[in-house]
Amino acid sequence: CLLKALETYGAEISKEQLLRAYDEAHNTQYLFTLHTYLLENRNAVRAAAALYIHKSTFFFRMGKIAELLAEDIMRNSARLFDYELSFHLLGHLKAVPKEWETKEESI
């Protein structure tokens, strides 16, 4: 069942890997920003607060993420769900960095 889900959401996982590689090469935090946005139930103000950044900075980052992924994921709730599921799968497979785990996930 997990392998079938991985096949279905492989494209999103690949895009997340693209963001991870970009972050490492350019010392940015776009993948973590996207992950935090999803953890904060897609609430931009709460995500900005959780990241300790101004909401303008948050929206700038989300714009860069959209540019890198070639899609405006903030305007497409179905695509956001795909990313949420792929983060869950990556977390289940321990591909998400440990510092990103929520308290519930690490119990």
Describe the main β-sheet briefly: none
Total number of β-strand segments? 0
Question: From the alpha-carbon coordinates, what is the Rg to the nearest angstrom?
Answer: 13 Å
Give the overall pLDDT as a whole number: 74
Distinct helical segment count:
7
Give the CA-based shape.
Answer: globular
Helix content: over 70%
Taken as a percent bin, the fraction of beta residues is: under 5%
Order of H and E elements: HHHHHHH
Ends apart, CA distance between termini = 23 Å
Residue windows where pLDDT falls under 50 for at least 5 positions: 1-6, 103-107
- What class do helices, strands and sheet pairing give? mainly alpha
What distinguishing features does this structure have?
72% helix; mainly alpha; 7 helices; globular; 107 residues
